[in-house]
Amino acid sequence: MDKLLSHLAHLEITTPDVEASTRFYVEKFGMRLVDSIDGASYLRCWGDHYRYSLVVRHGDEPSLANMAWRTASAEALDAAAASIEAAGVQGEWVPGGHAHGKAYQFTGPYGHSMKLFYEVEKYVAEPGFESVYPDRPERRSSHAAAPRFLDHVTVATSDVRGFADWYNRALGFRIMAFTDLDEAPITVFSVLTTNEKSHDLGVVLDTSDRAGRVNHIAFWVDTHEDLLRTADVMMENGTPMEYGPSIHGIGEQNFLYFREPSTLRVELNSGGYRNYVPDWEAKTWKPSEGSNNFYRNGAMPHSMTESFPPAEGFTATEEGASEEMKQALLNPYAEQGRG
Ligand SMILES: [Fe+2]
User: Fold this and answer.
1) Between vectors from CA 20 to CA 221 and to CA 220, what angle results, nearest 5°?
2) How much distance in Å is there from the Cα of 130 to the middle of ligand 1?
3) Which of 34, 64, 27, 8 is nearest to 265 (CA)?
4) Could you report the per-residue pLDDT of 109-121, keeping only the tens digit for each?
5) Ligand 1 center to residue 94 CA distance, Å?
6) What distances in angstroms separate CA 19 from CA 46, 99, 216, 218, one per listed residue?
7) How much distance in Å is there from the Cα of 95 to the middle of ligand 1?
8) pLDDT recorded at residue 103
9) How far is the CA of 307 from the centre of ligand 1 (A)?
10) Most buried by CB count within 10 Å: which residue of 34, 75, 119, 174?
């Protein structure tokens, strides 16, 4: 298959309070509001090459409304649409949106909205925001917590391996790793990528009956020191760290997680490996190997299993599931001992 997708271009999320969420991303996180259109905020990181990477719209609940990927070429956009339809999903062509050209919009087999486009408006810095680096779209933010660019999105699904297989077959995402529980052959996590990054699409097991949910959105900083400073700045300004800073075994990325005002989870990453191997064979990790927290010295808080919008009805509480299995499913990345 020729390369179809290049990278994640932007995410569209919903929040009950657009103003509060926007203020958070601007004042606490150091993103910049570039456009306000029909009540939606268009936000960018200083290193984003397109006009914006995050759209914040009104919705009754926190959710992922859309994820937008840029194709490798104009021809690849047509090929991607044909491949999606050949894989059994019918989407539709939509006219250009704000700062991008015509797009193919579809809902994947596990309920996630995805938009593909090639034509896009490159960001040109307004006077006062130019960088002295010719390759930088904008000068580095002076905000101490500012992320450089959008990194990835991690969604939730009822069938992690089925999800990974479909996005691999239909769109050429490389499957980089899986996590199966120590106690049982249940796959709770996978990472996929369109490029050399360890992942730009993650997927966690969703044991609720609500399809199309998101677990977190993630941004990037250059160094571990930048990440630690963000934790410090966030803590000093009243935003607790939900989990981390620590390092994921899978992908070898430094991480921290916090919540924005809607309660949606935001991750910050630095580091991690690069992988260019076209026929990479995904390994299956166990949580006890440190798939999530490589140091294995701190259990993941239960709150990390919450995806968005909120849902009830964990199937792990159904009759027949052992106490051990309920706990494992409710907290799939908890440490299972150090082997
Ligand atoms: Fe993540």
Assistant:
1) 10
2) 30
3) 64
4) 999 999 999 999 9
5) 29
6) 21, 22, 20, 20
7) 31
8) 98
9) 13
10) 174
Ligand 1 centre distance from Cα of residue 127 (Å): 34
Domain ranges of the chain: 5-124+146-330
Q: Please give the structure tokens belonging to residue 47.
A: 């290193």
* Domain range 5-124+146-330, CATH class: alpha beta
Q: Are 192 and 203 in contact (CB under 8 A)?
A: yes
Q: Which residues face 258 on adjacent strands? A: 266
Contact 216, 265 (CB under 8 A): yes
Residues paired with residue 259 on neighbouring β-strands, in sequence order: 265
Cis peptide before 109 (omega within 30 of 0): no
User: What is the residue type of 122?
Assistant: K
pLDDT at residue 91 greater than cutoff 70:
yes
Question: How many CB atoms are located within 10 Å of the residue 114 CB?
Answer: 22
**Axis crossing angle, helix 74-86 with helix 160-171, rounded to the nearest 10:** 130
Residue 196: both structure tokens together: 């050399």
Kindly report, residue by residue over 192-234, the tens digit of the pLDDT: 999 999 999 999 999 998 999 999 999 999 999 999 999 999 9
Please say whether the beta carbons of 302 and 53 come within 8 A. Answer: no
